[in-house]
Amino acid sequence: MFNYSTLQRYHDDLGLVIEKRSDIDWVCLQIEQHASQRQLSEVSLKQINNAISDIPTGRQRRLKRAKAQVLQFLYEVCDWVLPLKEEARCQDRALEWMREIQIFNDDAGRVLRGYSQQRQRFLAAPKSRSQSELAWLLVVLYIEVAPLPLNYWQAVLCSTDPITFFEGQYTLKVPHPTPIAAFANDTQPSFTRLPLPLFAYRLLQQYMLQQTQEPTKSALLKALNSALSAQPYYLVPRSEAKWQRTFQSLWHHHYQVPAELLRDISDPLRHVATLPQHFSPTLPLAIKKSLYQPIVFQRQENQDAIHSKSGKLHWPHKELIKSYRRKNNASAVIPLVPSGTQDNILPKLLFHFCESLFIEGGVKRDNLPADTVDRYSNFYKNLAPLTYQAACEPDKLALWAQQAFETLNDKDSQAWHFYQFLRSVSQQPLTDHLDLSQFEKPSLPARVDPFRLSVAQLHLVIEHLLSSSNGHALQRLFASVAALFGFYGALRRGEVLRLRVGDIRQAFNQNNHFQLTITKTAEGRTKNRQTRHVYIVMPEVAAKLVRIVIKIHAESDHAQPLLALCGESIASRASHYLYPVTQVLKGLFGTQVRFHHLRHSGVELTYLQGLHLAYEREDNHLACLLDDRAMQTMLTKQNCLARFSFWLEGRDFSEINDCLLFDVISAQFGHAHYATTRRHYLHGLERIIPLFKPHKCYYSRDELRFILDMPTGSNDISRVLAELSPQYASLPEQAKKCYRPYYSEAQLLKRIVPKQPASMLKQQWDDNEWLKIWTANAPRQWHNGQVFHLINGQAMRKLTTGELTMRSLSQAWMLLGQHQGLVLDKKQCTAMKHLGGATIAEAFISEHLARPDEPGKLDIVFNCPCNQRTLKAFQSLCHQGFLKSFNAKLTLVQNRKSLNSHKLELVKSHFARKQDTVLYNVIPVGDTSLNIILHTPFSAIIFKRPLAQYFADLLTITT
Fold first, then answer.
1. Is the Cβ–Cβ distance between 484 and 539 less than 8 Å?
2. Residues 581 and 281: beta-carbon distance below 8 Å
3. Residue 337: which residues within 8 A CB-CB, separation 6 or more?
4. Which residues of the chain are under the pLDDT cut of 50?
5. Among 884, 867, 866, CA closest to 936
6. pTM value?
7. Measuring CA to CA, which residue among 397, 347, 392, 348 is closest to residue 575?
8. Residues near 792 by Cβ (< 8 Å), separated by ≥ 6?
9. 225, 170, 161, 213: which is closest to 193 by C-alpha?
10. CA-CA distance, 173 to 136, in Å (whole number)?
């Protein structure tokens, strides 16, 4: 279960001595017997301790040390949950690690002073061979890039192309010895990124060009000892672990890096880099057309079509495999994607899985034969059905997957093939919330799924959600606000869905500040089962949408879900508000992107805001790297202070204990430890390390010549300085000699990489822009032909003014087609005509039953003959159609001369439903007729005129 070499490497990187293999293996075997998931209970730990105590010899001491080392690895690298006392011991060991670093404080100061002297001599004569090039490069990398363990530097120097230009700067790719990135495969290894300053970039570039053989770790250590024991350092030779601690001490004091961050930059396994993004701001046409469209299921009357003649369930992926077997045949036709059913969406998911294998190939081969795909999907017969509702809810989907995995676990390779199927399921927009960590070996490092969006990219997503011509106005609004909460609030998918009206509060006199309460509700509980308060600051253009949602729920109950109509199920909300967000994310940024990545992005934004305050950086400090003015705006001191105002409480950041910053940030996201936040949500260090260093610094002319790859002593540097600084160009000749160049690396980078791609993202928004987009796409009238637009511009205005409540609107929405809307087809319009057309009237309520504060309700009235044609029309509308939810009062008005007819029996037995009332009225003269009154809960003040006009216009359409 556990790999000794992995544990050994982990301890070597920390400069610690690991216990003997036999002792480590003994402890690992005990843990394997007592724990199956990433958790060790108090009882299990006690049993392991008792087993150690039973050993009478001195081996007991070694096993206790081995146990401590294994648990430290599981806690730090594999994300195990340990008993509280054991977690506290792990944290104490981290403090001991920091104390060992402090021992080398004096040596770190000597290294820094010696480095400054050697750097000046090098820049004066960079072509000199008097010093060890390898040792000098190592010292520069240790001081300028990161204090990594020596084996990582050896891996970097042995790489063919470790330097990449990424997000406006040169970066260094550091490979992981154990793959921890979700994207890792045979062609794309797992790695992290470090920013590469221009001086180190130029030196490393020269070394890579001149490199003749790959250096070994022993050669690197020997070169380091030789160089740093000589002038100007005069340090005692030492082991690689002690050299790393020396440089860690330098970073801790010189760059003011706190202990937690020092662990981050010293251990590449604590973070994973993101891959370069390739996206277009234009949404693919197929997604644009399907956005907000209801998911189509097989109709009930066509359910038999999904079963074979033998009664077994039909699996469309088998037809797909057969078609690829016959692909050489000209008559072979690739089947279309099946629609699926609400009772079981597995056939559709399996179809997508096999389709992706045929199109994209497998992990190792580009083209897979049909027989291979058939073998990869042969587990389908052992799976229980997966309903649409269960697929929409994360807990139910995870439970189904776990039960299916346990069923297949003993069936040769089927469990592995099923795991690959689950990876495909987690890429589908409907089921992208599936967490695959429960299927990974607990002894392996936890996988990280790195991806992040900038503020401008999020705003692009919002614009697509708001500007769609599909769906209704509330659907577009709720989906957009869900994305905003996922980003600026860093909320989980379930937390967005369960957020209630009473859980959000706007800050006093702060229009763009909101406080959210994330707690247990009737629909579920938080992941850590604890309540937390989240404080959100967002741009005004986004805050307007949130305030509209709060406004339209002004009269709603506090327990009412915020992003929902009254009575709407959580599955419906997930399908209609979160699913469109996922569709847009995948359409713009790729199928690997999930709704949860909005949370990743929001966590990073909060983290950057905290570091900007801690290091007192201006908002333009990362401008070149972010290439996003909207993101830069969120990093201004005003917005950073506003984000942490709940903690600062009016004080300046310098007045508080900034050692608590990371704990405060982690608590905002529901993490008990900063390690969880750092490992899974903060990707790479290319945006973090630049904050340790000043934005601009002074350069000597020799240093500029070296960085810009100019000859030593070249006078052309004056021309370059004039181009970089207009101030220098206007100085007299004597003053130019005394001029000290003061630039940022971004300014110099333009001389090295002159052509940088321009951002395709919009950078500025008017505060009312999204509001205008949202209202522009809402229908202005209540109806258009056969379509009744319940949620239109007029209804939205009445909601915000209080004339219409969300409860009243929801009642109408629930009875008039819900998200599909009310659209009458030709058959239904004809039925309306046969019933004589509908008349809308205010319901009569006796005086003793009437409530003065309750608005009147509407009745839908039909006056029609009582015959078979009327019966057929009534059944199509009221037994099966859109009027079936309304109780009816059927009054048969019969001429006394035709009492012998069976019309009354016809009304009672065929017209009336169980909930209907039948009345009988005999008249002396006149024709027999049937009066039908359908009672609705609709407000007469709001809906009388729109519905009357709608039904009146329907008659003109059918005539």
1. no
2. no
3. 348, 351, 352, 355
4. 130, 299-310
5. 884
6. 0.89
7. 392
8. 473, 778, 779, 780, 781, 782
9. 170
10. 20
